[in-house]
Design a protein that fits this description.
Elements lengths: L11 H12 L2 H13 L3 H29 L3 H8 L4 H40 L3 H8 L3 H19 L3 H27 L5 H9 L8 H14 L6 H7 L7 H32 L14 H14 L2 H37 L4 H21 L1 H31 L2 H9 L9 H23 L4
Bound molecules: tryptophan.
């Protein structure tokens, strides 16, 4: 298959929206504010910014560059670089696609709940109170039905391909996400209590700074840029050769970080507005209520306390969350789809439906055995597999790929790069510093 058959992003803007869409997800809108609230506010924020710039960003450039060089799915791209050991290269590609599928299988369940919480106020307004209750009450039937709905949305986009599906929908949805964010932040700031939240967010409590905060910040940055599982690699493979990769990756990282920062501006003040309205946000020990409850208990209670305005705000908030989740889930599904399509020479339509169905089945199994499986799958894929695969990509780029071939690839779209400080530092940095830093994250739980 030649590269022209496989689709391409049609513009730099489209690529940035798609890649930022992959990066901006529940990790930003939910994970980041929760971590910040429980880890000393700006103390966490500052360490996170550091990790983003020093670890995640160089790795984002690495994944995009490997993908663009390959002009193919992650399995084939890795094989093309690791010519001396193609079976091992292919094996890592397969592990990446399995990990991406695992992430999608639990992410789709969470996204299903968000759909439920977004539809519930609508059901309430039209008088279907029983339905509204069902939508927000934990149960296997609800969990599975809403996951099916979310997976259908993901398949709907991915089966249309790179420019007509992924690029088009990311370019439509990401601006909506920004507008919803700004509107919600603007509204929350008019409410009593918001300033307390802002203070908690922006005044660093340095007594929280310790090794585990640093490790959490690193893991969060890595998760947030969708690194490790080949998603950025496959998006990179749809990038044309005249794009300046380091610059474009910088813009993606800035959007991702900016959205995480905005999520903090929304969620932390909202928590204190909720407190002002009588919602409990701290437990008896004075600790913040757990992260799941923050989004599914504290915020809905806040919206309830706001009357009709609260219904509208609730719908907007959960719509925002579903959009963030959808632009990430299409990137996750694209990893196995591109592999099946190209390696097994299958049509995209068929590959998307088969894989969407298979991953949905995994989601249903997880949903039916929720307590036993959910945390297990989430932890195995994001805490262990993502960082470990990141080490593999750093090794592939730094130790296996020849420096000249790497230079030739990255020079396209950036002819002067050889003279820049970037080229003097980055390959060395990805070769030594990134794998070492990621291994520290990985090793920490065992220490
Ligand atoms: N970055 C996404 C978020 O912040 C989550 C994510 C992790 C992801 N790994 C991924 C998205 C792989 C797409 C592909 O929620």
């Amino acid at each position: 298959m030649t590269s022209s058959d496989r689709g391409q992003f049609t513009s730099r803007f489209g690529f940035i929206m798609a890649a930022a869409g992959s990066a901006v997800g529940l990790g930003n809108v939910w994970g980041f504010p929760t971590q910040t609230a429980t880890n000393g506010g700006a103390a966490f924020l500052l360490v996170y910014l550091f990790m983003m710039a020093l670890l995640a960003f160089p790795m984002l450039i690495a994944e995009l560059t490997i993908g663009r060089y390959g002009q193919s799915n992650p399995i084939a791209s890795l094989r093309k670089i690791w010519v001396k050991n193609k079976p091992v290269a292919a094996m890592f590609g397969v592990i990446a696609l399995l990990t991406a599928s695992m992430i999608l299988s639990f992410y789709a369940i969470l996204a299903g709940w968000l759909i439920g919480f977004g539809l519930a106020p609508i059901a309430d307004v039209i008088g279907l109170n029983g339905v509204a209750d069902w939508l927000v009450t934990f149960g296997t039937a609800r969990n599975v039905s809403l996951t099916v709905l979310f997976m259908l949305m993901t398949v709907f986009v991915v089966r249309r391909g790179v420019s007509d599906g992924i690029e088009k929908w990311s370019s439509r949805l990401m601006p909506v996400l920004f507008v919803l964010f700004i509107a919600l932040i603007g509204y929350i700031f008019t409410q009593d209590g918001a300033m307390d939240g802002l203070e908690m967010y922006l005044v660093p409590k340095w007594n929280h700074l310790n090794a585990s905060l640093v490790v959490n910040a690193m893991g969060q940055a890595f998760f947030s840029l969708s690194l490790g599982v080949g998603a950025m690699m496959v998006y990179g493979s749809y990038l044309s050769k005249d794009i300046n990769i380091p610059k474009t990756a910088g813009q993606v990282a800035i959007i991702d970080t900016g959205v995480a920062f905005m999520a903090g501006l929304l969620i932390l003040p909202a928590m204190f507005v909720a407190k002002e309205n009588g919602v409990q946000i701290f437990n008896e020990l004075g600790e913040l209520i757990s992260s799941g409850n923050l989004v599914f208990v504290v915020l809905p209670a806040l919206f309830d306390s706001m009357g009709l305005a609260g219904e509208v705000i609730g719908i907007a908030f959960f719509a925002l969350m579903v959009i963030a989740a959808l632009t990430s889930s299409i990137a996750m599904l694209e990893v196995p789809v591109s592999c099946l399509q190209e390696e097994a020479k299958m049509s995209r339509n068929k590959a998307t439906k088969i894989l969407g169905g298979t991953i949905l089945l995994c989601s249903a199994i997880i949903a039916a055995n929720f307590n036993a499986l959910f945390d297990l799958v989430a932890t195995a894929s994001t805490v262990y597999m993502q960082p470990l695969l990141g080490v593999v990509w750093a090794v592939v780029l730094g130790w296996i790929w020849s420096r000249n071939s790497l230079l030739e690839e990255i020079r396209q779209g950036n002819p002067e790069i050889e003279q820049t400080w970037f080229w003097k530092i980055w390959p060395w940095y990805v070769k030594f510093v990134c794998p070492a830093a990621i291994l520290i994250v990985f090793a920490y739980p065992f220490l």
